[in-house]
Design brief:
Structural class: mainly beta
Number of strands: 63
Shape: globular
Largest sheet: 10 strands, antiparallel
Oligomer: single chain
Strand content: 35-45%
Low-confidence stretches: 12-17
Radius of gyration: 33 Å
Number of helices: 14
Length: about 1000
């Protein structure tokens, strides 16, 4: 049934010379015309030497410079441009592959759920915009690199054309195809001429298929993947299917090939280093492997099946090398398993996106994969379309499990049903028969191309397209042709056809709710196909999910959203470069910076979130006790003995001793190993770090790369230090209170209510002034993307007012001064403009050495909203840009994202401390800071201390300045260094970015008294 429907998707019965009718792009049933059937992505070569070199004489690249004409809609496109006599020489040049929107035509548009035409043209599903539907007409002249041989044919393959393409050669119409993300291949043979040939293509930005391509990404168009000519000799292997049957116990594997041989010839197949495959007739070959090397993410072993194709005369016509991975991925005993071991997906969703948009080279794709491997990622979901074929070859080689997702998302229609009350009958594709051919065509194109990749462990029917019989039939197709499990998340929202998916799949469900769900629903394995929405400063409390995955067998992990920010390099009116997001291109509608969800930035450099990703995804979980460490090996196929285990003892950042210890804890097991060193008895704060490192270099990381780590902090107490300096001098004035001692002076204004001056050091004018404004109690930070998502500023905005406009009432009479034998204490009480009203007391205790100890006490009352943070804001000189701290690091960290941080001494430049998220927001803070210094080039500056640990931020801008900037280029010139010591900042959260709040345990209390104590002094 399903295969017949796929066949009906091709309107190939039309006369080859018939004219193309552009009006048909608005017909959902017009899926393809004369497009060649999809086939495996194997390459064929003329000789073994070519195969070894990777350059095939049967391929001719047409990528490079093409001619282009741009029209804003099909009616304005040039008529007859494909005819040989039509002169296109005056047209512009454009590189292929490329998006036309990045080369001066149309404009980039970023939308998430919205269709790009929503509110612009009123059209029904399947129809296309008429007034604005950009059309790119391409022309390329080429000459075959050698004459055709007898029986040889030539085709052209457009590996990516968004969203629909019509093709002509020498004026002859060849065909039409949709599905932006799988190859569109057409036979050229009958239209070729000797000498120069004119290849023409028309690419439509919107077609009926665009209703199925409402993914969360920039909307581009054009030829964005390579264009290749393929020669097929008279005897040719058109398709290969590899089947591997790995028996239980993993000791025996049967490898079977099914070869679709065209023409009069024969095939011989062998596995390099193993032997010949038995010819079983009718295109079938097989071999049994004893004790095979298994493919897994940790050890991606591959066998090379070498095929020789000879014609009837015995002449060699093709050499094919097909890589085969021996592995068994299936649902066994109710669990997703690889080679008999339970799987936990430590996954990432990956849009294929880089500095050139969705145009990526194989080298760039490989770089992405190596970055993910180095971070401990073991799986990728190709959200939400098939990636370039190079991705799958590289995933095979380097070891990533892949959920291969077909090109489908109709989120904008689903929203009408879910949120606006539209009837279920309006769902696209839903139960509507006109959409089934397109879906099955997309499913078949993906399956046929990718079926032989061992990295592909599941097929996905698409994303966020509700449910219905059409998706049920797509799943049935996958099961008809293959044995891999089928995935579809939309059944969660439309459970009428639960058989569509072999797993329970949800998105952004909090860990506690996943656990609650699985208490009652234990029919299928459970995965989160999207979780940990990493938008901006996010990725908080992800350890909750990972620990659940190793506690609850049915919860088998998930896929972070997502790999890298999607943004486009722009230059502002002042010549400053920045990355643009939705709305920066004159695009409307748009979804702003919602495209910035990466654990990597747009240029694929790591964000600070990667520090936490690597920690929660590490395959060895370590607990350090007094004299031993316990290691739980969460890997599937690797003993801990594969890695060096280095134990380091340090005191307050200074390494005292380092030793190695041998471990041998099998995959899935837990073991205890004695520590090779002990904490001294001398007073101090010590750290014990355990680090597992690669013994030798791999393709994805150098020797010594850290694959797992843990740290324990041990304090050996000592008596409190006594300040030997004499008590400072108190100077009482009418409007000021002065405190001074050897080498310092402090001035409090009782007129304006605050600490007005702090001078330190011996200079001709009485010491260098280290404060540029009065310190103030501070309760606010620039909202993060997640906080804006759950509208925290609406709820918490009064804390912004409290930070800006809190006041000391009648400071002349209310300021309190106390003295003792060693210090002077000045106390101010701030009234805060909150509802209900509350107060904050600030006591400054100045000792004889110039150290100022600050105690803040916030008197919370019932009814106040959650505090974004509780601390103080101090500003000092912009020259103090050298930041050095003893605390958690090296990257920014927050109370719910500090597992990957380690206590140590670190150095940074203040001017780079505001993390360059797409939209400026709270960033750059550290937890557990015992002390921090900001100094100039001579070492002069300010030191902030909190022995019990504080959160600390040093930035060149105030939170107000950060919040007011939509891009980093809009931040003002640097006039100060802004210090924000804090008892705590609210955790960043990140279960999602449109309503999920930070988990309760990572909020500040909302009632009672909060006290925060820290100190500062000049250095």
């Amino acid at each position: 049934m399903t295969l017949d429907t796929i066949d009906r998707a091709d309107a190939g019965s039309r006369d080859d010379d018939a004219a193309f009718d552009a009006a048909r792009i608005a017909d959902p049933r017009f899926v393809r015309e004369n497009r060649r059937p999809a086939h495996s992505d194997h390459r064929w070569f003329r000789s073994a030497e070519e195969a070894a070199d990777g350059r095939s004489g049967y391929e001719q690249s047409l990528s490079g410079r093409w001619k282009i004409h741009y029209a804003k809609n099909p009616a304005a496109a040039p008529a007859g441009f494909f005819d040989p006599g039509y002169d296109c020489e005056s047209w512009d040049d454009i590189p292929v592959p490329a998006h036309i929107q990045l080369h001066g035509y149309d404009r980039p548009q970023y939308v998430n759920v919205q269709y790009p035409w929503d509110g612009v043209e009123e059209i029904a599903p399947g129809q296309v915009p008429a007034r604005y539907n950009p059309v790119a007409s391409y022309v390329k002249s080429f000459v075959l690199d050698r004459p055709l041989e007898t029986g040889e044919t030539v085709s052209v393959s457009f590996l990516g054309a968004e969203s629909a393409i019509a093709v002509w050669l020498n004026g002859r119409y060849l065909g039409y195809a949709t599905d932006s993300f799988t190859p569109s291949e057409f036979d050229l043979t009958g239209a070729l001429v000797e000498g120069e040939n004119k290849l023409a293509a028309q690419v439509f930005k919107f077609s009926s298929g665009s209703w199925l391509e409402d993914q969360d990404f920039f909307r581009f168009s054009g030829l964005f993947r390579d264009v290749v000519l393929h020669r097929r000799p008279a005897v040719h292997v058109e398709d290969i299917r590899v089947d591997v049957d790995l028996a239980p116990g993993n000791q025996v594997a049967d490898v079977a090939l099914r070869v679709d041989l065209r023409g009069d010839g024969r095939v011989r197949a062998r596995i390099d280093g193993v032997g010949e495959l038995e010819d079983r007739g009718d295109g079938g070959f097989g071999i049994r492997l004893q004790n095979p090397r298994l493919w897994s993410p940790e050890h991606p072993a591959l066998y090379d099946v070498e095929m020789e194709v000879r014609d009837g005369d015995g002449s060699l016509v093709e050499v094919i090398v097909q890589r085969v991975g021996v592995r068994r991925f299936a649902i066994e005993d109710g669990l997703l398993s690889l080679n008999g071991r339970r799987v936990v997906f430590l996954g990432v969703n990956r849009h294929e996106f880089g500095l050139a948009g969705r145009v990526q080279t194989a080298a760039e794709i490989e770089s992405d994969i190596l970055l993910l491997k180095a971070a401990g990622v073991n799986a990728v979901r190709t959200s939400h379309y098939p990636n370039s074929t190079a991705f799958y070859h590289l995933a095979d080689r380097h070891g990533l499990m892949v959920i291969d997702e077909m090109n489908l998302e109709s989120h904008g229609v689903w929203d009408r049903i879910r949120k606006l009350g539209a009837p279920i009958e309006e769902a696209v594709p839903g139960d509507r028969p006109e959409w089934l051919p397109a879906l099955l065509d997309r499913a078949a194109s993906m399956y046929e191309r990718d079926k032989n990749h061992p990295s592909v462990v599941m097929w996905s029917c698409g994303n966020e397209s509700y449910g219905g019989t059409n998706l049920r039939d797509v799943a049935a197709y996958f099961r008809e042709v293959d044995t891999r499990p089928v995935h579809y998340e939309g059944v969660h929202w439309d459970p009428r056809h639960e058989e569509t998916t072999d797993v329970v799949s949800q998105m952004y469900t909090p860990a506690a709710e996943v656990e609650e769900f699985l208490r009652e629903h234990r029919e299928k394995p459970f995965i989160l196909c999207e979780y940990a929405h990493a938008m901006g400063n996010s990725f908080g409390a992800v350890d909750e999910y990972i620990e659940l995955a190793y506690r609850e067998p049915l919860f088998q992990g998930g896929f972070i959203w997502d790999f890298a920010d999607q943004a486009i390099a722009l230059t502002d009116r002042y010549g400053k470069e920045y990355f643009g997001y939705g709305g920066d291109f004159g695009d409307a509608p748009n979804d702003g910076e919602f495209c910035g969800n990466g654990i990597f930035f747009t240029d694929h450099t790591p964000t600070p979130k990667l520090q936490e990703v690597a920690y929660v995804y590490q395959g060895l979980r370590i607990r350090i006790d007094d004299d031993a460490m316990t290691v739980h090996n969460r890997l599937m196929a690797t003993s801990s003995a594969a890695y060096r285990c280095v134990v380091t003892l340090a005191r307050e950042g200074e390494v005292l001793r380092q030793a190695e210890v041998e471990t041998d804890i099998a995959a899935g097991e837990t073991g205890t190993v004695a520590l090779p060193l002990a904490v001294p008895a001398a007073p101090g704060e010590y750290t014990i770090d355990v680090s597992f490192r690669l013994r030798s270099a791999t393709a994805w990381a150098p020797e010594g790369h850290e694959v797992a780590r843990e740290q324990r902090v041990v304090r050996v107490q000592s008596p409190a230090a006594v300040v030997a300096a004499p008590a400072p001098e108190l100077v009482r004035g009418a409007h000021n209170i002065g405190v001074r001692g050897a080498g310092f002076s402090v001035l409090f204004s009782t007129l304006y209510g605050g600490l007005a001056s702090y001078r330190f050091g011996m200079t001709s004018d009485g010491g260098r002034e280290l404060l540029t404004s009065m310190p103030r109690p501070h309760f606010w930070h620039a909202p993060t993307a997640n906080e804006r998502g759950w509208e925290a500023p609406f709820e918490d905005g009064q804390w912004l007012l409290a930070s800006r406009y809190g006041r000391v009432r009648d400071p002349l009479t209310s300021t309190r001064v106390e003295t003792d034998e060693t210090s002077v204490t000045v106390t101010l009480s701030y009234e805060l403009p909150t509802r209900p009203a509350t107060t904050c007391d600030v006591a400054y205790r100045v000792d004889g050495a110039g150290r100022v100890e600050v105690t803040q006490t916030l008197h919370l009352v019932d009814g106040l909203p959650s505090l974004p943070e509780f601390g103080m804001l101090l500003t000092t000189l912009p020259e103090f840009r050298r930041l050095r701290w003893y605390g958690d690091g090296p990257e920014e960290c927050y109370v719910d994202r500090r597992g990957g941080a380690r206590l140590g001494v670190y150095d940074r430049d203040v001017t780079t401390e505001l993390t360059p998220y797409l939209r400026p927001q709270e960033a750059g803070s550290r937890t557990g800071v015992r002390w921090a210094e900001v100094t100039d080039g001579r070492g002069v500056g300010l030191r902030v201390e909190s022995p019990d640990g504080m959160e600390f931020s040093a930035l060149p801008w105030t939170p107000d300045e950060v919040e007011n900037a939509l891009h980093h280029t809009e931040l003002p010139p640097i006039h100060r260094t802004v210090l924000r010591p804090a008892l705590m900042r609210r955790g960043v959260g990140g279960d999602d970015s449109w309503g999920a709040r930070t988990l309760a345990q990572y909020h500040l209390p909302t009632s009672g008294d909060l006290a925060f104590r820290f100190a500062f002094r000049g250095v």
